[in-house]
UniProtKB/TrEMBL annotation:
Its EC number is 1.1.1.86. Belongs to the ketol-acid reductoisomerase family. This is Ketol-acid reductoisomerase. Substrate binds at S269. The gene is ilvC. The keyword Cell cycle does not apply. The lineage of its organism: Bacteria, Pseudomonadati, Bacteroidota, Bacteroidia, Bacteroidales. Mg(2+) 1 binds at D207, E211. InterPro entries: 6-PGluconate_DH-like_C_sf, 6PGD_dom2, KARI, KARI_C, KARI_N, NAD(P)-bd_dom_sf. GO terms for molecular function: ketol-acid reductoisomerase activity; metal ion binding. Pathway: Amino-acid biosynthesis; L-isoleucine biosynthesis; L-isoleucine from 2-oxobutanoate: step 2/4; Amino-acid biosynthesis; L-valine biosynthesis; L-valine from pyruvate: step 2/4. Its cofactor is Mg(2+). The keyword Amino-acid biosynthesis applies. GO terms for biological process: isoleucine biosynthetic process; L-valine biosynthetic process. Residues 4-198 form the KARI N-terminal Rossmann domain.
Length: 347
């Protein structure tokens, strides 16, 4: 465990140097890892573990996704089974189904979670909100988590490129006395770059806040507000879009990613510096109460309730698609289509 200084705060991280793959293989050599679900995280984690020499099987219901697993080399009856059969065969049972599916499938797999097995998650949702999900594991199994900080597709691509996505890890229940080493070995096995410690609750609170906040919800709200104000004051769509989104994503974001926002501020015109320094405060003050309201909604379980209720309805996909269609057809994102076409690399 290495101690690292994050902006003045010391945290423990686990790297591949101190926890090499050989050690992970040794710890998990007698385990059968059963990956339930072959959506996005399922293939990333299952294929990386298989390529790293672990004993992996997949549990997936029949249909298009099952066929994808077959195409990826999982063999029916040998390494590919129904969800129930994989749960029965596995000693580390991995819940890589969608959050709504985990609720639906839980009663069917629970009988197979016998003493000494580990139940593994990549998200704290099912356990943290178990008053709503009813996912209450037996006392005599380990309950562990490794949550890659990115999509399953990136996990796989970065693994194939010899790089690694960072992951958080947590132990919720240690029945065997080996839960932590099982967790870390698993995290190294799926190809994590480094692992940092969290709890199930902190993982899901930060994840739900992030996607509703600066990663997705807040950023769309901010961009649209600026685009609308420019349009309402007579600016053309192309001008409003270029000043709001195109310059941000094409010019600033790569520099901001590489060097930080502090560097960005120090390397723009003094006119931009004066204005940005003056306006960052009012924006912060306007947004912080909304962010706090969002966090409270996550912490109270309200966001989980909304998501479980809406995503469990039979027509949930159609309803989501209708809202996504409205976003796609909005003037700002239709302007984006034309702006992208005009980029030199697309001509
Ligand atoms: N998306 C990410 O990259 C990401 C990143 C970090 C953590 N995570 C976490 O990883 C876990 C898996 O997420 P994911 O995005 O990979 O999930 P996903 O793609 O939404 O999972 C879909 C899987 O669930 C199965 N499924 C859906 N409904 C089902 C049902 N009623 N009965 C049985 N199987 C059903 C699907 O099978 P069918 O195709 O047959 O429906 C498919 O195998 C979640 O806890 C998520 O929060 C995800």
């Amino acid at each position: 465990m290495a101690q690292m200084n994050f902006g003045g705060v010391t945290e423990n991280v686990v790297t591949r140097e101190e926890f090499p793959l050989e050690k992970a293989r040794e710890i998990l050599k007698n385990e059968t890892i059963a990956v339930l679900g072959y959506g996005v995280q399922g293939p990333g984690q299952a294929c990386n573990l298989r390529d790293n020499g672990f004993n992996v099987i997949v549990g997936q219901r029949e249909g298009k996704t099952y066929d994808k697993a077959v195409a990826d080399g999982w063999v029916p009856g040998e390494t590919l089974f129904s969800i129930e059969e994989a749960a029965q065969r596995g000693t580390i049972v991995c819940m890589l189904l969608s959050d709504a599916a985990q609720i639906a499938v839980w009663p069917k797999i629970k009988p197979y979670l016998t003493a000494g097995k580990a139940l593994y998650f990549s998200h704290g949702f099912g356990i943290t909100y178990n008053d709503q999900t009813n996912i209450i594991p037996p006392q005599d199994i380990d309950v562990i988590m490794v949550a890659p900080k990115g999509s399953g597709t990136s996990l796989r691509t970065m693994f194939l490129e010899g790089r690694g996505l960072n992951s958080s890890y947590a132990v919720y229940q240690d029945a065997t006395g080996h839960a932590k080493e099982r967790t870390l070995a698993f995290g190294i096995g799926i190809g994590s770059g480094y692992l940092f410690e969290t709890t199930f609750k902190r993982e899901v609170y930060s994840d739900l806040t992030g996607e509703r906040g600066s990663l997705m919800g807040a950023i769309q709200g901010l961009l649209l507000a600026q685009y609308e104000v420019l349009r309402e004051h007579g600016h053309s769509p192309s001008e409003a879009f270029n000043e709001t989104v195109e310059e941000l994503t094409q010019s600033l974001m790569p520099l901001f990613a590489k060097n930080g926002m502090d560097w960005m501020y120090a390397n723009c015109s003094t006119t931009a510096q004066r204005g940005a320094l003056d306006w960052m405060g009012p924006f912060h003050d306007a947004i912080k109460p909304v962010m706090e309201k969002l966090y409270q909604s996550v912490a109270s379980g309200n966001e989980a309730r909304i998501s479980i209720e809406s995503n469990s309805k039979p027509d949930y996909r159609e309803k989501l698609n209708a809202e996504l269609k409205a976003l796609r057809e909005s003037e700002m994102w239709q302007t984006a289509v034309t702006v992208r076409k005009l980029r030199p690399e697309n001509n």
